[in-house]
Design brief:
Helix content: 40-55%
Distance between the termini: 34 Å
Shape: globular
Number of helices: 13
Order of helices and strands: EHEHHEHHHHEHEHHHHH
Bound molecules: adenosine-5'-tetraphosphate
Oligomer: single chain
Number of strands: 5
Catalytic activity: tRNA(Trp) + L-tryptophan + ATP = L-tryptophyl-tRNA(Trp) + AMP + diphosphate + H(+)
InterPro entries: aa-tRNA-synth_I_CS (IPR001412), aa-tRNA-synth_Ic (IPR002305), Rossmann-like_a/b/a_fold (IPR014729), Trp-tRNA-ligase (IPR002306), Trp-tRNA-ligase_bac-type (IPR024109), Trp-tRNA_synthetase (IPR050203)
Main location: cytoplasm
Strand order of the largest sheet: 1-2-3
GO molecular function, one term: tryptophan-tRNA ligase activity
Structural class: mainly alpha
EC number: 6.1.1.2
Length: about 325
């Protein structure tokens, strides 16, 4: 079975539709065919300031959302990143192999650091993609289900793996990005030329917010001045984004939706899509609450996941330490 790894940050009270359609939906599907490792990446979360109690709470809320979306801890390894110290240990080794200029070319760092005052930009935000490479390489990962925004980080991961392998001998599997064809980048509802992102929360549909609110956000999504419901990203970014979301949530093709809405107005499309979203999030939220009602069981699932992840990760790290010449502890 191929090995799959991916992670998500516990930095909000809710995942959003972009996270779900760009990545998490694939996580669930890939469990069937792969040996999957899925991680709530709390080490990544602290690259920007976090309130400790909130971070703890959001880590559990994140895990509960993953379970409610269908991650099955009997088939996949679900765990919290800080429970497996090997992530940080491998990250240090990889940092020492990364060029300063190479790290500086990461566009996500440029975007995220530009949004903050220079003195508040931590070194961790800069080295974040290297920790991400460590996350992936630690498990000898073959495929990484992520959204389009992670493509560059995956390239860095592959470069670091190749560099290590050629300098110290074959050690890491070379991972490929598994980016969905149709939903790689869900756009913001208020600015359909920008990625739906929790950092710029104008037009973000959160899976945990009140379903009514989600429907309202969809009804007030920015569209264009024409009338025709047609997929055309160049000229009709807003409508195209809504069609992508609609199609992904219902399994109806975009062509089928275009035909079904011929002669109808944007208002009809938005109202119907709002209902589709409500029907999706309502049972989801009930399930999340169910998992949060039994925190002891949730923590047990995460503990078991971390135990298994540590076994696999520690084996890789031992090889790495040996290859680079660290004296084995006796
Ligand atoms: N808009 C999106 N479309 C498709 N995929 C997306 N992802 C995020 N936004 C979109 C994918 O979700 C996964 C988890 O991402 P993360 O934990 O790194 O969260 P994030 O990237 O921090 O989420 P945001 O909302 O985009 O936050 P900021 O603005 O902080 O970067 C990843 O696989 C990601 O590709």
């Amino acid at each position: 079975k191929p090995r799959v790894f991916s992670g998500i940050q516990p930095t909000a009270d809710s995942f959003h539709l972009g996270n779900y359609l760009g990545a998490l939906r694939e996580w669930v599907t890939m469990q069937d065919t792969a040996d999957a490792f899925y991680c709530v990446v709390d080490l990544h979360a602290i690259t920007v300031a976090q309130d400790p109690d909130e971070l703890r709470r959001r880590t559990r809320v994140s895990a509960a959302q993953l379970l409610a979306l269908g991650i099955d801890p009997e088939r996949s390894t679900l765990f919290v990143q800080s429970h497996v110290p090997e992530h940080a240990q491998l990250s240090w080794v990889l940092e020492c192999l990364t060029g300063f200029g190479e790290a500086g070319r990461m566009t996500q760092f440029k975007d995220k650091s530009a949004r903050q005052e220079a003195e508040h930009v931590g070194v961790g935000l800069f080295t974040y993609p290297i920790l991400q490479a460590a996350d992936i390489l630690l498990y000898q990962t073959d495929a990484v289900p992520v959204g389009e925004d992670q493509r560059q980080h995956l390239e860095l991961t592959r470069n670091l793996a190749q560099r290590f392998n050629s300098r110290f001998g074959p050690t890491f599997a070379l991972p490929t990005a598994h980016i969905p064809k149709d939903t790689a980048k869900i756009q913001d509802l208020q600015d359909p030329t920008a990625k739906m992102s929790k950092s710029v929360p104008a037009g973000v549909v959160e899976l945990m917010e009140s379903p009514k609110r989600s429907a309202k956000k969809i009804r007030s999504a920015v569209t264009d001045l024409e009338k025709e419901i047609r997929y055309d990203v160049e000229n009709k970014a807003g409508i195209s984004n809504l069609l992508v979301i609609y199609s992904a949530l219902t399994g109806r093709s975009i062509a089928e939706l275009e035909a079904a809405y011929e002669g109808k107005g944007y208002g009809d499309l938005k109202k119907d899509l709002g209902e589709v979203v409500v029907d999706f999030v309502t049972p989801f939220q009930e399930q999340v609450q169910g998992y949060l009602d039994d925190v002891a069981e949730l923590d047990k699932v995460l503990r078991k996941g971390a135990e298994h992840a540590r076994e696999v990760g520690a084996a890789t790290l031992r090889t790495v330490f040996d290859r680079i010449g660290f004296l084995a502890p006796t």
